[in-house]
Amino acid sequence: MDGTEQRETAQAAPSVIDRYYTRWYRADMKGKPCEDHCVLQHSNRICVITLAETHPILQSGRTVKSINYQISNGCSRLNNKVSGKSKRGGQFLTDFAPLCRITCTDETEYTIYSCIRGRLLEVNEDILKRPALLLEKPSTEGYIAVILPKFEESKSITENLLSREEFEEVVSKRAAAQTQPS
Amino acid sequence: MLPLKDKDKPLVQKLLAAGCCARCVLRFCCVGLHAAYRQPCQDSLKELQAFVSDAENGKSEQAAAPEPAEGNSTSHDAAGPNSTEENSTSQDAAGAEASEDPPSKRMKLEQSVSEAQADGASRVCVCCLGILQQLSEHTQAVKIAEAVKAENYEFDSLVLSVSLPAQLCVREHSCWLHVKKEVREKCMTLDKDDVIQVKEAFKWIMQSLIAKELRGVSVVTKSVFEVGVEFTHPETDADCHFLATACPDCFKPTKNKLSVFTRMAVVKALEKIPADKFLKHYPCPPPRPAGSCSFQDVQCLHVAVFVAGRYNKFCRSLPQTPWVIDGERRMESSVEELIAAPILSAFRADGFNFSSSGREDVDVRTLGNGRPFAMELLNPHRSRLSRAEMKQLQEAINKSSDKIRVRDLQIVTREATGRMKEGEEEKTKSYTALVWTQKPVQKDDIAFLDEIKELSIDQKTPLRVLHRRALAVRQRLVHSMSTRLLDPHHFYLSLKTQAGTYIKEFVHGDFGRTKPNLCELLKTDTDILELDVESVDVDWPPAIPE
Ligand SMILES: [Zn+2]
């Protein structure tokens, strides 16, 4: 009896993400199958970029070898610094600006993209020290970056993204296609 | 009897001829005796006219030590009655070196002297544009007093402030240049600053009249209650315009000003512009206006009163201040509005500014002794409530809503409100949180939290406030914690922390951005379902015994 009650309360209590954030997705990033990204948008417009649960990195038994925020010779996301309330100095990102490259132990490499336009506030340096966080807690402590969209764009930046329902539909179609290859 | 000396005569004569009113003449004679301005304008004018003709008749008292120029004029004054010709000659003689007036202009000047003498009382002064004439009469004092009475303020003294059209400065400058030589002959050390200002003369005349109308109120130079009187004179607004081309750097357009010709800017330009340049663009003396200034407005302003107290918030859907997102109101009320409404009506204030020692989130209750707050009441019409009245007011607030409660409500000084923010960072705050754990826990699993003391945590600016605050890592102390298990997935966590600690983030971790956090300590996901502020340890405002 205790057990069912507990499960009920656990379900009745939405997580921090459910309470304050809206989930948006970009499926098959840049045409690469299953490289799905997730954007958690807070009601205050701040966005947290994470891997979607369906991203290949998070699939069966992979291990992350390294994460690199140095996206080109001239540009490292680690050098991003913002100051003041207005977040001066943050790198400005467009939809397909790369955030980092993740290499798995099987030498596959994936690029994670910004997904939205906005100012880069911070990247998650903890995953550099503990890459396992990416696999253990992909939508919380294993986040990739925090981005602040322009105030006037806070509504329009999600227009090109999929809602949670739309994304789930994409995923279920994908699963159907895999089980019934035509 | 006007306190004038022989040396003032040329000055008086020239100013009357220029079309100045009697009081403006007194101003340029640097008469500082208030009573001289308070006598009726017409009486003063007659006296001045008599004074000037006395001079002509040679009946005036002799100065003890005549200067050469004065000796010269005196000898001519003695020439006899009705000798305006003679008199003008004497004037010319006195200012022989400087005077470049052609004879024709001299004639005009004399004509205008007699005109001024004929109907000077009814003509609008070229310098004060009527401010010191009909606009400082008894009927005006009545008007001002009535306007003040209509506002129904509680006060026992007032300070009068006067706002005059900026072109008055231009006219004053023109008059000054017109008689500068005569003023200097009266006394070498006198300067433009020694001329009594229109504003000052107006106050000397009006203050006692207004005080009398308001029965017993004293009109003083410093008071918490200000009565502002504003005059305008659209007819001569263009007087200032030449200054914009003459001194363009003094007139920079500003967003919130209707006109660039503010009094400040005009005064600055007049200080800069050389006399010859001024005289090229503006007549000297100033031209005669058709009408006098109009009395625009009376504005009353009482300095702010500060009220302080402590509040409890019992509701989890009540923001501290109005919550507006994208111009839309999110919650129907707020702590500050619930407290402010009865206070505003008791003090009959126009508005308020609310501040408090920290603040709680919309879904957080504030229990215990409550949170100190202070409220600045803007332009209160009532400012002195007794202790009993404050107590009644507190009761009225508490009756008006069960979402909040107020205690220790009192009137405080502006300075004292600073103590509310003093050492805000060092103060301790006590909270109780209802915590959910993903894994079921037992009493013993969480008991170790009770043993942790002075836990130092690093908090990155929480994501929920990052849009309006700078990104930083702040170190905070969790002084102590105690736990009370509710069921395997829920327990109450009481915390004593340094002020400024973000409790919600300490519990759920904020994407790992607060470290350590409760998830880490308990090695399971945790979430915060409810939060109460139990105490805000700021010992201000002083407690008021019930
Ligand atoms: Zn005047």
Give a nutshell description of this structure.
The complex is a heterodimer of chains A (182) and B (546). Chain A has 182 residues and is α+β, with helices and mostly antiparallel strands. Chain A has five helices and ten strands, in the order ααββββββββααββα.
Summarize the structure in words:
The complex is a heterodimer of chains A (182) and B (546). By secondary structure, chain A is α+β, with helices and mostly antiparallel strands. Chain A has a single domain, classed as OB fold (Dihydrolipoamide Acetyltransferase, E2P) (Beta Barrel). In chain A, the strands form two sheets. Chain A has a seven-stranded antiparallel sheet. In chain A, β6 and β7 form a beta hairpin. Chain A is globular and about 55 Å long. The N terminus of chain A is likely disordered. Chain B is built from 19 helices and 16 strands. Chain B folds into three domains: 175 residues, no CATH class; 118 residues, Alpha-Beta Plaits, CATH 3.30.70.2510; 113 residues, Alpha-Beta Plaits (2-Layer Sandwich). In chain B, strands 5, 8, 9, 10, 11, 12, 13, 14, 15 and 16 form a ten-stranded mixed sheet that branches. A four-stranded mixed sheet of chain B has the order 2-1-3-4, with helices on one face. Chain B is of the alpha+beta class. The longest helix of chain B has 20 residues. In chain B, α8 crosses α10. At the A-B interface, α1 of A face loops of B. The structure holds zinc ion (ZN). The site of zinc ion has 8 residues of chain B, from α2. Zinc ion (ZN) binds next to α2 of chain B.
